[in-house]
Specification:
α7 runs parallel beside α9, α12 runs antiparallel to α14 and α14 packs antiparallel against α15. This protein starts with a strand and ends with a helix. The chain has an eight-stranded parallel sheet with strand order 4-14-13-12-11-10-6-5. The relative contact order is 0.13. With about 375 residues, it is of the alpha/beta class. Helices cover about 45% and strands about 20% of the residues.
Length: about 375
Amino acid sequence: MRADFEIENKDGQARTGTVKLATGSFKTPCFMPVGTRGSVRHLSSLDLTELGAQVVLANTYHLMLRPGAEIVKNAGGIASFANWKGLTLTDSGGYQIFSLDPKIDAEGATFRSVYDGSYHKLTPETSAEIQADLGADIQMVLDICPALPAPEETIRESVEMTAAWGKRGRETFLNHDDAPSRQSQFGIVQGGVSQSLRIESAERTLETGFDGYAIGGLSVGEGRNEMLDSVSAVSELLPHDQPRYFMGLGDPVGLISVIERGIDMFDCVLPTRLARHGTVLTSEGRINIGNAKFAADDRPLDPGFPESPANHWSRSYLRHLMATDEPTGARILTLHNLAWLFNFVENIRKAINENKFNEFRKETLDIWA
């Protein structure tokens, strides 16, 4: 089902609104935490509800291997399986093409399981079918995401294959018995940092026609300016009445920079991965709680964010937990980082609605740039 975007307000290209799906709706801008195996590391679905998450990602590659798409389907889909009351999005397996170096041919990608070494082939057709079984509210079409920098011929090949696979994945989705009535399928724009290839990929993705559109293959090794120039080249080509999704971005400067260019949705493992290593997002900027200066610091973690679920404990105590590898420490910092980022995005939303986005952007850059 087409994902309709209802605009609430615009301030420049930055915009707020509501994405309407067959199964529910969510407000934008929207940060989506990553629950690779059906769970955000250290957190439960109840935690995510308490934090105010709207949409959570799950990973097609991992779930098709364990526990298997059939088990998830029989449980009523990934949300029911995880007892998650919000919305879900499944990636296509395309990121694993980037990260696991599978064997790729015109038909698809052959992976070796990270669990038992067995081989599995993922095609645009099987990706769409598996995601239909997983039952997420949004599924992504299978694409090719090359690491950057890369030779132009490699980027050209990824654009060609992404376009061809997009048509095949879309046809499979539309011909599925019930997926089109309960799921939305997003197409993906590739093209590296070549503005001409980005525009071509966008035009070819639009020609196939999807329920929403994503910009993929960025934030994978290129410079920040190159990334933003690529976003600018295509964001205004994408329909204004459908959501725009930047895949794999989660730092404050990155988020506010792509929102400035008209992006509505984004996801990243960054805030949760940082937390597991003791790095915290705060109103003062990024801090590493493992630093010796926090050993006797009895202040709450982030006095500038009084709503933080981590402020029940001192910086000293949290440093102690991380220094002794106590899993409770990683859990508390994960709760904080997600709460902080959700609050940050909500403040962006408020600034756009009040036509004060540029002021908020400057304040963010003063702290984080």
